[in-house]
Amino acid sequence: MFYSHTYDFLAKLLLIALMVAAFFILQIDHWQQFMMTHWGLREGQVLFFIIVTITAFFVLPLFVFVYLPFLAPAAAWCYLRFSLKTPVSWALAKKTESLFRPTLKRLQWFPMKGLKETPQEKREEVLLLFFNEVQSNPDLYGNKSWIDEYLRQNLSKNGYRAFHITLIPIALWVLYGTFDQSGIPGWLSQLQANYLFAGNHYPMLSFVFAMVFFTFLLAGPFLLFSRMVRR
Question: So where does this one cross the membrane (predicted)?
């Protein structure tokens, strides 16, 4: 889900507004034409370059340095105070804000409406206890796919990390092929157009299928090496 509660929606709406403002300031259309005209890049290559650059230098910094330290805690503070009737300090809202929004480790959030039934003087204690429980049991409260869970159980901790690190450049390469309509994503787009959608194709569908293929393909050597080491 894109947002959890009303205040989180407003925080993310403000984040999107900041991103849109940055896009206008950067004049994306101008740079797109410039790279196609002066650098000789194809439209798909330009789109890939622009998206990767904007993500690396604007989207991620805004998320890390604006949303996480300021907007997300503010949304949690408002939710706790106005929706759950639980007056908390900014420090406590900042500490527990991950409970009230989806994260990379789990897609669900915790409304904690039971706080309104808890005596006023014990609400902060209950909030902290539940937060510590969630932090201490990521497997219980996480939302992992079956293949991710299988890899975590059958790879060492370093092997699991190495697998995901190796997957990053593969994802970038697949993303490039998706925009440029080359490589395996381009071939998948041709299959869609010829056999599935009567001449049409959906690039993001090609990206998803390609990533699923490479994820399983990459998992094989990692699992095989892990078993050899354990023997």
Answer: 6-26, 46-68, 162-179, 204-225
